[in-house]
Specification:
The protein has helices at residues 13-20, 85-111, and strands at residues 29-32, 47-51, 56-60. It is α+β, with helices and mostly antiparallel strands.
Length: 112
């Protein structure tokens, strides 16, 4: 569910205070755990270190991000890859094809 319009957007008070006292160029990375905080227009240009449960991921805020939450830009789960044995075979074939293509490219200019 969306937040009620009469309440307005949620922006963490401490985070807003840090942003209001600094300038985007000189602020550096502002570390925060407030993933639920919405991005306001005052935050544009700042770099935030948004915590994902393990580490802080740097997020440079642009105008397109206004209205979204900080947590949307700091994924909490690491995608490794799908598949097992079949996927490995497919990737090995691709890698061998790339190697063969690179060797062919090296040899062709030498013949000319």
């Amino acid at each position: 569910m969306a937040r009620s319009l009469k309440k307005g957007p949620f922006v963490d008070a401490k985070l807003l205070k840090k942003v209001s006292h600094a300038k985007p160029a000189s602020a550096g990375v502002i570390n925060t755990w407030a993933r639920r905080s919405q991005i306001s227009p005052e935050m544009v240009g700042f770099t935030f270190g948004v915590h994902n449960g393990k580490q802080h991921i740097e997020v440079l805020v642009s105008e397109d991000m206004v209205g979204h939450r900080l947590g949307e830009f700091s994924p909490t789960k690491k995608f490794i890859r799908h598949g097992g044995k079949m996927q490995k075979e497919i990737e090995q074939k691709k890698q061998q094809a790339e190697i063969a293509g690179a060797k062919a490219a090296k040899e062709s200019p030498a013949k000319k």
